[in-house]
Amino acid sequence: VIKIGQPEHSVITTCAYCGVGCAFKAEMRGEEVVRMVPWKDGKANRGHSCVKGRFAYGYATHQDRITKPMVRDKITDPWREVSWEEAIARVAGDFRRIQEQYGRTAVGGITSSRCTNEEAYLVQKLIRAGFGVNNVDTCARVCHSPTGYGLKTAFGESSGTQDFDSVENTDVILVIGANPPDAHPVFGSRMKKRIREGAKLIVVDPRRTDLVNSPHIKADYHLPLQPGTNVAVVTAMAHVIVTEGLVNEEFVRARCDWDEFQEWCEFVSQEVNSPEAMAQYTGVDPELIRGAARLYATGGNAAIYYGLGVTEHSQGSTTVMAIANLAMATGNMGRTGVGVNPLRGQNNVQGSCDMASFPHELTGYRHISDVETRTAFEKEWNCTLDPEPGLRIPNMLDAAIEGTFKAIYIEGEDILQSDPNTHHVSAGLAAMECVVVQDLFLNETARYAHVFLPGCTFLEKDGTFTNAERRIQMVTKVMTPKNGYADWEITQLIAQKLGLDWNYTDPSQIMDEIARLTPTFTGVSFEKIREHGSIQWPCNDDAPDGTPIMHVDEFVRGKGKFMLTEYIPTDERTGARFPLILTTGRILSQYNVGAQTRRTENTAWHPEDVLEINPFDAEHRGIKDGDWVTVRSRAGETALRAVITDRVATGVVYTTFHHPTTQANVITTDFSDWATNCPEFKVTAVEVARSNGP
Ligand code: SF4
């Protein structure tokens, strides 16, 4: 006899929120999730979870789900439900017509971290093999694209260097621009445990996060830098390490390019790079930087963890390379307890990047211009590939505004809410003749769509996600897709309508193809992942069981590369009209733009975004706790409720971006990372004034 509310069976799957990648046992009663129980054998979570993965799955059955395809001729027309056949024919027909009318390069697509690896792979294959262009990009453009660029340049691979277990052997934890207790909670807890056991902690963050000072944790050093000055702080730390003779010369001689290292030493030793000289930009007491640098270099195994507070800057890629310099100079690479670890915000941001979602790379981060790589794909896909990199998301939007880009296929990404300069995004989308959105809900981007293809939640998917430690894990369907098709099947339907010979019957066949084409994946298969529980790539003949720690005997690129990381202040400046700097972050119970978590009970914990403002700045403006305020920048304005707190320093204000009413991207700037176009979300000059609300 089964009691009401008792599960009948259970399925092991992977959380679809942050990059920790917790494994869960979904306890089911028919098609209903009774509860999500953190899986004790999950390699990334070891039986732990946070409130997102455990409780915030109700969006899968929320009444807002769209389950039927819809089309309309103009974006001002009402939506019309149609058959899958009609919707797919409309997409294929419009894209072909547009290419004939405006040229081959007038179309493109966007994948996202909501996609499984197999889904992301198929989207980019459709764009490349079906339309003959490399105009494909991913949501990583607006988060960790500088990680890809910076780590590939320094070490030869676009990924974090360690597994999560490595933290157990760390003596010094350096956290830069990340807030793991809120954004990566399960790993954040593990980090805190290690600190309670005695590891030292350095936090580089403009805000006093819980890691800096909470009942059980106190950072040994908190460097409360001015937003936008990461390069100045990290280069100043390098100055101390080099000028005080704290370099691990034995490691550098054996593992890195010695000439480049010497050139770097000369550069960082200059007086302009000293903590004292940099203080005019960083606002940080030079003695704090000196102390932190000494601790990092001499405190034993030292590991760096960083997040979007590093990447979402005009010098995001530079900061990633500056961090890599620090790790190499001190020999903190290539063994457990050390390394450089980007904390990926989304469940499959690592995977979507691995799967060739960038306009210049094929799987495994190999450049599209490489003849040998391209030839292998052309043979497998039976097509001719364009050797030229395609357009990034902002360039697609620019081209649309200029009239040369007319159609886009977007799977699982709400670019109108996620991407910078909302006015630019809406102008680009409005200028297109065919916008196809494949998603769960009629999101903000869908306001500009001509075709809406209903997608699946992770509870309706089979496939794999890859977490922040390169761990590939199974996502297993627990309920029938409400829309009738898996996301990869929808992409395949479009490809078949275009006349492509695609006949996948199971996502495992897509992974088999990825493994055939990708040297770092040749040993990966669904069978093996199920057998091992998970696999960390590279997994191939050299590493048949996967690779928890990278760059052990030598860097993937051979010799580690030191780069000169000159601090160049952002063009976003404060002044009389906009005297404060707005920076952004996340909160534990919500996730990104909130499309999922806002449709669950988690919203009770965080019903609205607020603006944190220092007591001095608030008093100066007559603002009281709980007042509505207008936050105005050069780009636009928004309304938020004020919370007065000394977690932020004077001159800095802070908000989260989980609710669409916040419209944080209406006020952010157009500035972006010089190497990757990752937007500078973390630095916006603003003024704040009391208001009557929205
Ligand atoms: Fe784990 Fe992250 Fe999911 Fe929380 S959101 S359960 S930490 S994967």
TrEMBL record:
Residues 8-64 form the 4Fe-4S Mo/W bis-MGD-type domain. GO terms for biological process: formate metabolic process; respiratory electron transport chain. GO terms for cellular component: membrane; oxidoreductase complex. Keywords: 2Fe-2S, 4Fe-4S, Iron, Iron-sulfur, Metal-binding, Oxidoreductase, Repeat. One of its GO terms (molecular function) is 4 iron, 4 sulfur cluster binding. In the C-terminal section; belongs to the prokaryotic molybdopterin-containing oxidoreductase family. Belongs to the complex I 75 kDa subunit family. This is Formate dehydrogenase subunit alpha. The lineage of its organism: Bacteria, Pseudomonadati, Pseudomonadota, Alphaproteobacteria, Hyphomicrobiales. The chain holds residues 243 to 936 of 960 of the full protein.
